[in-house]
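Newbie here. two chains, one complex. Structure please?
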Amino acid sequence: MARIMTGVNWLIPVFALLAVVPLVAGPFYSRLVATGILYGVAAVGFNVLFGYTGLLSFGHAMFWGTGAYVVAIGTVKLSLGFPQSFLLALGVVLLLALVTGYLSLRHTKIYFAMLTLAFSQLVYAVALKWRSVTGADEGIYGIPRPLGDIEDYYYVVLVVSFATLFLTWKLLRSPLGLAFRSVRDNPYRAEVVGYSVNRVRLVSFLVSGLVTGIAGALYSPLQSSINPDSLYWTFSAAIVFMAILGGSRVFLGPFIGGLVYVFIQDIAMGLTEYWLLITGLILGAVIFILPSGIVGFIVKLAGGDEE
Amino acid sequence: MLGIVVDLGYVAAQTANALFYSSILFLIASGLSLIFGIMRVLNLAHGAFYMVGAYVMYTVFTRLVSGAEVGVVAGILAAGLVLAAIGYLVEVGLLKWVYSKPEEVQLLLTFALILVFDDTVKIIWGTEYKALQSIPWGSFRVGEYLIPVYYIVTVAVAVVVAFGLWIMFTRTITGKKIRAAASYPDIAAALGVNTRILFSLTFALGAALAGISGAMAAPILTAYPGMGTEAIVLSFAIIVIGGMGSILGSFIGALIVGFSRTFMAIVYPVLEIALVYIVMALILIIKPTGLFGEREVERR
């Protein structure tokens, strides 16, 4: 049961369910669900590092925002097509992850978190001040959406997201994924067994950043605009929230967390202009009532193992 | 700067700006550092405490007390007391349940508090910027530039607080008990120290410092929702630069951040914000315990 609930088999029904959305819902909800899917992929990326490798990044907004910005710059300022811009974004994100990962992984725990925070704020500062390229505080507008309509672009988001999720899951099931967990559970033993702990962590950092960057790169065409808020530390905190909300010890937990987060926001915004208050109260409640997250809780109810 | 005639009055005015800004940053960062140093809790809501302090000042100054000088003094005291109470309630009601939980739980809980405080402030005070309209004690002239006397008062308050914290932790029984409780909670408890109450008091004191910081910032920087999100991340930079848990470190860190931002904004604005985080990252890479931190870093 647990294997079924947490494994790759669940990608297919979730995919099928999400594929129906544009057929039955209008552009508003298609955009909302697509946003949720991308938040979810971003949180899964974060969780490769956090849940599977045991490192808390407090700067994942830098990968999301960089992916989003490079696609925006590529399509609007360099007049490249979306596929070229997307590939360019992945390249830039990988480079960013390589540099920040190499430097941040000199430490673990709180100092690692602080370094990732410093680097992401640095990227934020660049986006805020480099007006000729990033549009400074106004950001970039008029990002062309491949296939035009939201309902059509939705399927680009869905297919690329699930391909990413599938490949991530494959990787986490591979010997490399086992190495991640071995480093998480006992770095000393992992070292003794023959893993290069630092190299394993760096690979995890690269995968983690790349997956979150892919989600970001799909996000700016969806919204057709992007601004520095996407790089601010509060979004990094939101990504941590999504992962914990869904459950960081289950592969699809953070993905569901991202989807639920978007709906919490939407419902709270519909109820009151003070939707942050509602979000904050729900976040507080999750910590106390559902410490293993929504999906983690369901898996436990079903009597299954996590992971 | 080569070939540019330096206007000393301008330099003096900007130095005063930087000193004022550094003082505000020190007051908020020292509270954050205190709470981390003693309790090992990274309190993201500390910026929200700073924001609430600014609003308390606004209300006391514009509604409750007449006269700018009295108003400011009353506002600072009120902000300190209100935030001490809020801090105490937050610690006793929420935080003490998550001490044994991993860091991310503490970060998320205090992040949740930011969201709650930001909207609560909007409900009570509205969304627009709240300016105090007048600054007490007037100003004095240096060359062509006017420097508010209030800047000097703020610097004095920061210095007095720094000195007071130093006295408290090195010369008083309570301070020594708090340090004992931080280093060896079990032994301190066995020797009859009530660590529970000391933690609550430490948190209340840290929150009060954030409140005082916000109150002192309000006459110059106004009060607005979300002002805490920028303050908290700069405070993190400061305590990382100075060394987490070190009051002296917070003082030096605040000066570094305050001066680099003020003068970068003039000399090379493109790097105004980036420089702070470049310094933060460099310190973390080279000496993660910060300039004045002592604690050894865990390698894994």
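Moderator note: Chain A has 15 helices and two strands. Confidence is low (pLDDT under 50) at residues 1-5 of chain A. Thread marked as resolved.
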